[in-house]
Amino acid sequence: MRRAFKFLLRPTARQATALTAMLDDHRALYNAALQERRDAYRHPSKATVRYGDQSAQLREIRACDPDQGRWSFSSQQATLRRLDRAFAGFFRRVKAGETPGYPRFRGAGRFDTVEWPRDGDGCRWNSQPEHPTRTRVRLQGVGHVKVHQHRPVAGTVKTVSVKREGRRWYVVLSCDDVPARPLPATGVVVGVDMGAASLVTLSDGRQVGNPRFLAAAAGRLARAQRELARKKRGSTRRRKAVARVAALHGRVRRQRLDLAHTVTRDLVRDHDLIAVEALRIVNMTRRAAPRPDPDRPGAFLANGQAAKSGLNRSVLDAGWGVFLAVLRAKAESAGRVVVEVNPANTSRTCAVCGHCHADNRRTQAAFVCVACGHAAHADVNAAINILRVGLARQGAEAA
After folding, report:
1. Whole domain around residue 128: which residue ranges?
2. Sequence-separated (6 or more) residues with CB below 8 Å from residue 32
């Protein structure tokens, strides 16, 4: 298996300055390469500039620009490949008829990662198994940076990345051949219903509440953003205000991730098969479609966007995507099975008689079947339906 290990860096003040300069120089290289591609396309000849053409120019760039010459050649190639992947995605979306999203120039707040494609080429992961808290990573142009390694690294380190999150720096190791750790079979299966009122509802009736971390931090975020709006652009105080806002968002993100790890650990440990909904979160959180007024050209009717915005905020605050991603990764490592089922009508179908009707669920929490009279918590009823569909799908795939 391929797994990523993320550790906090503890650079000195001089190393932090060097890391910031490294990000800035790689960002300048990315933006210059993007500008070259734009200029080539606008030229009457419509010339095409590819990764190979731009990579061949690196030696000359490094020789003429001392700032670029002090960084790893392979990391600069990885930055150019990053731009190449952005263009490949753009053309793929154009062909598929999707929203293209043309690659754009990266500002200082939108370029936060530098990657080294191979361990030992411009970087070196110096792991010391006998002293896991004294590990360091060597980066060309920066030096040996102290790493807070809170768990052992398994497998073979293939790529090394340095990422900035607010005022913190992290090293991310992508490892191949990570051994699986299968857990003993339990003979227990479960269905999982995701929600906004309760983050997780299981088919056996258990529920995990939704802490709503973003809503809890909304007051502090609003104050910090108001302070940010008052600061003059380019000033030191504005940079500090930006860092405070980023720190608050980072805390919310870590809280969601910690809760996801805690809940999924118990799910994977206690169940052999876990049936979940195949949620399309991006589609669920889109803006409501506009409704043009047929009687007044250029005017629009009410489309419920205000209520939809509140629902979208609750869905994103719950962190369903993070939860499902962590669940899949833990299940794969433990040898468990995660089955994704179509969520359509799972909350309207009776788990006893199978009758499906919108009137079965008249409120958010109560489910009463209009055919057989079965009454249950709506989310528990949906979780039972998800489990039933998941077992049927698993049986069909096995056959």
Report:
1. 3-176
2. none
**By the 8 A CB rule, do 48 and 171 touch?**
no
What sections of the chain are H helices per DSSP?
13-42, 51-56, 58-64, 66-69, 73-96, 213-216, 218-230, 236-270, 281-284, 305-318, 320-334, 378-398
How far apart are the C-alpha atoms of 323 and 261, rounded to whole Å?
Answer: 8
Residues 284 and 366 in one domain: yes
198-202, strands of its sheet edge to edge: 207-209, 198-202, 189-194, 273-277, 337-341
The whole-angstrom distance between residue 16's C-alpha and the CA centroid of its chain comes to 25
The pLDDT tens digits for 113-136 are 999 999 999 999 976 655 555 689
CB 352 within 8 A of CB 376: no
For 142-165, what is each residue's pLDDT tens digit?
999 999 998 889 899 999 999 999
Entry pTM: 0.86
Give the residue from 150, 176, 202 where a domain finishes. 176
Kindly state whether residue 67 falls inside one of the protein's structural domains.
yes
Neighbouring C-alpha atoms within 13 Å toward the C-beta of 284: 17
How wide is the angle at C-alpha 282 spanned by C-alphas 267 and 169, nearest 5°?
70
Q: Are residues 160 and 243 in the same domain?
A: no
Cα 117 to its chain centre, rounded Å, is 21
Going by pLDDT thresholds of 50, 70 and 90, the confidence category of residue 237 is very high
Buried residues in 343-370 as b, exposed as e (16+ CB within 10 A): beebbbbbbeeeebeeebbeeeeebbbe
For residue 321, give the amino acid letter.
Answer: G
CA 380 to CA 360: how far, in whole Å?
A: 14
Closest CA to 118 of 74, 52, 88, 183: 74
